[in-house]
Specification:
CATH class of the largest domain in chain A: Alpha Beta
Protein name (chains A, B): Catabolite control protein A
Strand order of the largest sheet of chain A: 2-1-3-4-5-11-10-9-8-6-7
Number of strands of chain A: 11
Keywords (chains A, B): DNA-binding, Transcription, Transcription regulation
Number of domains of chain A: 3
Strand content of chain A: 15-25%
Largest interface: A-B, 83 and 83 residues
Shape of chain A: elongated
Distance between the termini of chain A: 63 Å
Structural class of chain A: alpha/beta
Oligomer: homodimer
Pfam family, one (chains A, B): Peripla_BP_3
């Protein structure tokens, strides 16, 4: 337990461990990388000796030489919403397997990513940064990154967009393109098949690319089928907004025979309002479709039909982008596409 | 955007920024600490110049001098379970406000925290590490920490425990003591008040301190009131286990007139099984109480009566422990206590 109090004045070096274990300096490094190939017995022996000598491969020191911190910054507005927490969970596992640790940065609740926080993040000199364009714009984030090329989650719309907004300077960033068209088309076809004619769209948070892309895509899909335009119900992705939105739609507005929610959590709020407050039957009186397919969507009380984003595929794509970019820092913008599909459960039928 | 590709060969120093801004070296450091007091105009001017000179206060470099990495490691089995995600969310906000970033480490799903992962974590040299004793035992974790004193979440039981298990060596770690007695006593009193005589306990994951402490505390509380022993229903904190547990209890076993679940999520599964599969009315036929008071517990489909752990108080206590420990690395074990209380909703009455 030497060095537990403030650390030993003189740190053990990898060379000292290599000598003690009678292995190469490289073997010592490999022993400390969970991902590097090494005979289990050899790794165990090296780690045991390293421990006895209280050696730690200080990444702070190594970072100065290799310019690799093995830190991946993830900028999120909120860790506790189901989708974000499930994505961070899967991403952390995947990054750990590649020898990276996840560094969490929370944006302010008003999503105004202030420059102090960006400068603060920059201080950790992450190897890569994953962000949602709603939280911080690429040209602003890039100004605050020393060398990391940010990865943005982009939601593709008809006509297409690279995530940049009019008038924004060209900056280098990599992209995950979530193609929502396929899954949403299946959803609209299902509703049409059940003869739904009056479809309401329960919005997500305003100014969110995901919200904007889902609304535009739904409008385009309904137009193609001659279903007119969706009834727009304000929302913010939350359970409570979904709940309140339904009370307004059915008590003040004209109601609807189907509700397409911008995410699953707000669909839960809509379902509960329809059943408990409005005494309507789902799916008999009103059909409900969500978006994401979070773990809670299979819960018996909701059993929600929803458009699934393949979380595993999305996480694998993000990790591929990070590794590709670290291999080729100079490469032009990289991108990967993630598809969506409809998962049919009990709220339509 | 200089240095965006691989970083500029020669880094700008804080002194260069101080000279350019005509301020002290200390003012430059303060400008980059979101928490440090500094006139907004002054901070803005320094950050603007730092940006123009593409200066970044490299914590990797500073860490070697100050031996502070400003990283707080959080070891969790799983980020996406509601309670953990809500705690990590609040903790990340609180730590950011103090100038720390949250470094996530996920344990293996079998909770066997393997030594490679610990050695890997040690490489990041965190200033502090927060862990749950189920994932890694104090004496093992401490061997892998260079200087950080770990903080453990401890669940107090009658008779008391400092979180150490029989035969484990004495090691220095700080502690959050969650006192479950008060809230659980209120829960048992409420059930007794409604004349419940046959109370089932839906278990959490075996070998979890939280599970062990909740079961023992419930047994002690029921004994005191002459309510006999709870019917033990196996579980693992998950929705699905709660759901399956009720089917076994009522279809194979003798049933119960009240169910106390080890956490809210498994209580949701129990509620859905009781209502949808077993066609029982809650609370008329069976009363249900959970533990945690996660955000989902107020959802209308569940509207769960539960024992609340004050998340904000718990997070504030953790941050206090980190700051106290960094001030006094040599201090003997520190601890803070977090209380619990019953939140009454619709599943008892």
């Amino acid at each position: 337990m030497t060095g537990k109090f403030g650390g030993s004045p003189r740190r053990t070096t990898a060379e000292m461990v290599a000598r003690a274990a009678n292995v190469s300096r490289a073997a010592v490094s490999r022993a400390f990388n969970p991902d590097a190939p090494l005979k289990p017995e050899k790794r165990a022996r090296i780690l045991k000796l390293a421990e006895e000598l209280s050696y730690t491969p200080d990444r702070a020191a190594r970072a100065l030489v290799t310019r690799r911190t093995h830190l991946v910054g993830v900028i999120v507005p909120d860790v506790c919403s189901p989708w974000e927490s499930q994505e961070i969970d899967a991403l952390t596992s995947a990054l750990q397997a590649e020898g990276f640790a996840t560094l969490l940065f929370k944006t302010r609740t008003d999503f105004s990513m202030d420059e102090t926080l960006l400068a603060y993040m920059r201080g950790f000199n992450p190897d890569s940064v994953i962000a949602f364009t709603e939280n911080v714009r690429p040209h602003i984030l890039t100004r605050f990154l020393d060398r990391a090329v940010p990865i943005y989650i982009n939601y593709v719309m008809e006509g297409g967009t690279d995530g940049r907004r009019p008038g924004e300077p060209e900056t280098l960033f990599d992209r995950i393109d979530v193609d929502q068209w396929e899954g949403m088309e299946q959803a609209v076809a299902l509703l049409a098949g059940y003869g739904c004619s009056r479809i309401a769209y329960l919005c997500g948070k305003e100014d969110f690319l995901a919200e904007h892309a889902r609304r535009k895509t739904l409008q385009a899909l309904m137009k193609r089928r001659g279903l007119g335009s969706p009834v727009i119900v304000p929302g913010d992705f939350s359970y409570d907004a979904g709940h309140a939105g339904m009370l307004d739609l059915f008590r003040v507005g004209e109601g609807a025979d189907a509700v397409f929610a911008a995410n699953d959590e707000s669909a839960f709020g809509a379902l509960d309002a329809l059943r408990y407050e409005l005494k309507l039957r789902v799916p008999e009186d009103v059909k409900v479709i969500g978006f994401d397919d979070i773990a809670q969507s299979h819960w018996r009380s909701y059993n929600l039909t929803t458009v699934k984003i393949d979380l595993e595929a999305r996480v694998r794509a993000i990790v591929r982008l990070i590794l590709r970019r670290l291999k080729a820092p100079q490469a032009p913008a990289l991108s990967e596409t993630v598809r969506t599909r409809l998962v049919v459960r009990g709220t339509v039928g």
